[in-house]
Specification:
GO molecular function: 1-alkyl-2-acetylglycerophosphocholine esterase activity
Distance between the termini: 14 Å
Low-confidence stretches: 1-52
Number of domains: 1
Keywords: Hydrolase, Lipid degradation, Lipid metabolism
Largest sheet: 9 strands, mixed
Helix content: 25-40%
Protein name: Acetylhydrolase
CATH architecture: 3-Layer(aba) Sandwich
Number of strands: 13
CATH superfamily: Alpha/Beta hydrolase fold, catalytic domain
Radius of gyration: 19 Å
Structural class: alpha/beta
CATH class: Alpha Beta
Shape: globular
């Protein structure tokens, strides 16, 4: 049973890769239909009330079972003690990132009462940009291979284990029913694996799903390089997911190229209708990182703020059956959107949950 049909421009009843996806011609028409518009959102978006100042704590964890360091940064709401259990988003960075990156998400989410744990993946983190530049291509190739993809999922699950273990000061404060996986680029692939993506190796399904994650935020997901059947890879992804991209979200790194359409294809291949897609009109693949120079100009801070806000609005939809925040978000940020999510019917969600209970 569908909980919600997130996109007004894609029928979910079709079958086959071509019919399920958003083809390039329709995607182009969708973008053009958005119009030029002003880059600035309406005045109300610039005057949203801020909560108490966010705080962050750095951890230097070591997974002794793998002899692997797992650094992490936790953004924790300053006002959390007054609001009961705290939702948690566990975030995975893209290739060459770190726990310090995507700070606008950690700060934006924690300022509104949602904690986020940003995991650093030592095999594919900022150390890639260090060392002999002649060897950069080799370092990137090793960081993006299948073994590192697996280790990334283990990093995330290990970090969540540490935060929730009984001797953690956050053990009793995290809402176990509202734990979300999130990531950008390679981290988006990590997120998909943690929520059900799997491949066939030696005739057997290989997956690293963590059932503690009950929703996901997938930002600029690349294809699963080397896999020819995307629908099969994503067939078991069934948690509600928010997909975020831009009309210029092309991946260009040594040894890897991925056009914008790949982001749409990943979204379309998710079998459950419990999904939503946001497409910003403009902004490169790295607009979602903390970089700002030559990265979208005046659009850059707007995309960042809108991305942080839509994540929280989506979680209100999933966990509170409240479509109003997402509807308000869509109206506020319409000037910079090529496509925005359509809220599902709350009554439908309630009936589905009642049958599952």
């Amino acid at each position: 049973m569908a909980i919600f049909d997130a996109t007004p421009f894609q029928p979910l009843t079709s079958t086959g890769a071509a019919s399920r996806g958003l083809d390039r011609r329709r995607f182009g028409a969708m973008v053009l239909a958005a119009g030029a518009g002003s880059l600035l959102p309406c005045r109300s978006a610039l005057a949203l009330p801020a909560s108490d100042e966010a705080r962050f704590i750095d951890f230097e964890w070591v997974d002794t079972a793998r002899d692997r360091v797992v650094p992490a940064r936790l953004y924790w709401p300053a006002a959390s003690t007054r609001s009961g259990l705290v939702p948690l988003i566990v975030f995975s960075h893209g290739l060459g990132g770190s726990r310090k990156g995507y700070s606008y998400l950690g700060e934006g989410w924690s300022a509104r009462g949602t904690a986020s744990l940003h995991i650093q993946h030592v095999g594919s983190d900022e150390s890639l940009w260090q060392g002999n530049p002649i060897m950069l291509l080799d370092r990137l190739g090793g960081a993006a291979d299948e073994r590192e993809a697996i280790e990334r999922t283990r990093d995330v699950s290990f970090g969540l284990d540490r935060l929730l273990q009984r001797d953690s000061p956050f053990h009793a404060a995290v809402d176990r029913k509202r734990i979300v996986a999130a990531g950008h680029s390679f981290g988006a692939n990590t997120t998909l694996i943690l929520t059900g993506a799997q491949v066939i190796r030696d005739g057997k399904l290989l997956g690293f799903r963590d059932p503690r994650f009950t929703a996901s935020i997938v930002i600029s997901a690349p294809p699963f390089y080397g896999e020819t059947d995307l629908a099969a890879v994503l067939a078991s992804v069934d948690v509600p997911s928010l997909h975020v991209t831009t009309t210029e979200d092309t991946i260009r790194i040594p040894g890897r190229y991925s056009p914008v359409q790949d982001r749409i294809d990943v979204y379309a291949a998710i079998p459950t209708p419990q999904k939503a897609l946001v497409v910003f009109h403009g902004g490169s693949h790295s607009v979602f990182t903390d970089r700002s120079l030559r990265n979208g100009g005046p659009l850059n801070p707007l995309v960042k703020r809108a991305t942080a806000e839509v994540g929280l609005a989506f979680l209100d939809l999933v966990y509170k059956s409240d479509p109003a925040p997402l509807e308000d978000w869509s109206a506020t940020w319409r000037p910079i959107l090529a496509a925005a999510p359509m809220p599902f019917q709350v009554e439908t969600l309630r009936s589905v949950r009642k049958r599952r209970a």
